[in-house]
Amino acid sequence: MIEVNKCPSCGISDSLISVMPHKIFFKESFIVRCSACEFLWLKNQLDDKELTHYYKKQYRNIKKEEFTFGRFKNDLQRAISQYLFYKKYLPCKTEKIIEIGAGWGVSAKYLYKQGFNRTTIVEPDDRVLAMSLNYIDRYDHIDDVDSHFFSFIVLSHVFEHIYNFDDFFKKILSISTRSSVLFIEVPNCENNYLLDNSDTSFHYWFFTKKTLAKILKKYGYQLLEMKFYGKDKFIQTDVDHKHQYTSFDNSIKEYESNDPRAFWIRACFRLEV
Questions:
Q1: What is the pLDDT of residues 20-38, one digit of tens each?
Q2: Is 87 in contact with 116 (CB distance < 8 Å)?
Q3: What is the pTM of this model?
Q4: How many CB atoms lie under 10 A from the CB of residue 138?
Q5: pLDDT per residue over 194-218, tens digit each?
Q6: Domains parsed from the chain with CATH numbers
Q7: Rounded to the nearest 5°, which phi and psi values hold at 247?
Q8: Alpha-carbon dihedral 154, 159, 161, 163, rounded to 10 degrees
Q9: Number of neighbours of residue 56 by Cβ within 10 angstroms
Q10: What distances in angstroms separate CA 35 from CA 14, 21, 127, one per listed residue?
Q11: Which residue, 109, 37, 111, 25, is CA-closest to 62?
């Protein structure tokens, strides 16, 4: 484990505020906030090698996550909802697309079926190989990808797990076409329920609309569009001011929301460097 004592957004290290205790990989830590730019992150983190091994061998086992029909339905609903959001920014179908942290591969498979058959995924978990994705190129780690130039990059609930932004974007920029588009969806840390329960999701970084846009601008990305999205039903209690998921069938139907404490932030950025 390493300590991250400098804000990855603005670089300040002498004005950090401890926000709340937190567990990561079953070890004690805490979330800190930069008083200068308000970015939040987990102070103690695994390094990149440890993190890759963890996601390859342990992540889904610890979460007891299996690829059931219910999981497939949830992932497909999310994939379709995201596709409708970023469809207008997609390149022509002869261009290359990469999804980093593809999970069970449902979104990549959906893109392939829409005619984007030059789709590549990065996913360390070997079980993805059993998901009938033999027609899609797959890599264990972003550093393994070479000799490709992608026009569209998908990061769905992955950016909050990235180890080092500098190293990550150095690689992304090396495999991106000029004016490529980056789609990101992350949890909204202004939703107290998600923030309070994030220790079960192994997140390193906690974003608001403001801090997400600032991080991407640092690496040469210009915001195209950003919106809040939420699950199909949620309530706000007067007691603890938390959003709670109340859907009976536990499915994820993600709709655009005007609530600043909705579950997710969804955005597209264009590379301008």
A1: 777 666 677 888 999 999 9
A2: no
A3: 0.85
A4: 18
A5: 777 666 567 889 999 999 999 999 9
A6: 68-271 (3.40.50.150)
A7: -65, 135
A8: 110
A9: 16
A10: 9, 18, 42
A11: 25
